[in-house]
Amino acid sequence: MFRIEAMSINQKLVQVKDLTMGFEKRPLFNNLNLTIEQGDFLSIIGPNGTGKSTLLHIIMKKLTPKSGKVEYVGSNFGPSKISFVPQTRNISENYPLNIFSFVGLRLFNNLIPWLTKSDKQKVSEAIEKVRLTDKSDNLLASSSGGEQQRAYIAQALVNNPEMIILDEPTNGLDERSKDEVMEILKLLQTKDNVTIVLVTHDPESVKNNSTKILMLNGDSTYSVGDQTLLEDANVKF
């Protein structure tokens, strides 16, 4: 059965310390401090151009900040325990893979260029988690936007990550698809203890799901809090 290995409650995974980042003369955030713990559902919100996606890449250590640092502090936690779901994918209308094969791409390697029985089981379980079992033979290219996004999440799951980082996972989706994606992410967090970190322009979609919210204010300042942060600020972007 697909399962994320349990860790102690509130174990720190990532420590962001005194992070400062900007491009040329445009500061994004100054002296940002943040702790991400096992089982968090962290939503990063803010207007366009405030550095939300940039911060994700710094957390994954794909970008270097001007100052400050990101530390992986969890027991045995590191880059191999993080899966990333980017904002966009180049899936053309002629993309040949069905959903099952697409999800399985994450497990291919140069030594064994096919899926083992164990791999196929992992793919099936990940697809079940995102409610696409009955769609697994469908071509990814002809699937709806919501189904494609759920397939991307399934692909992120097959390596049994402790943390999934998502950049605008509900962007461009209709309300029903948004709700389904958010419900799946919430279940991964609450039932499987997967740490969720996501960027969104839609504060309403994360209002009742987040355990922690980071709001980048657009003037290089930031706020960290729980769901009451959205209510107090009456946030709209």
From TrEMBL:
Q: Which Pfam families match?
A: ABC_tran (PF00005)
InterPro entries named in the record: AAA+_ATPase, ABC_transporter-like_ATP-bd, Metal_Ion_Import_ABC, P-loop_NTPase
| Record keyword Nucleotide-binding present | yes
PROSITE patterns on file:
ABC_TRANSPORTER_2 (PS50893)
Keywords from UniProt, A to Z, are: ATP-binding, Nucleotide-binding, Transport
Q: Which residues form the ABC transporter domain?
A: 14-237
Residue spans making up a coiled coil are none
Output the Gene Ontology terms for molecular function: ATP binding; ATP hydrolysis activity
Family listed: Belongs to the ABC transporter superfamily.
Task: Spell out the protein name for this chain.
Answer: ABC transporter ATP-binding protein
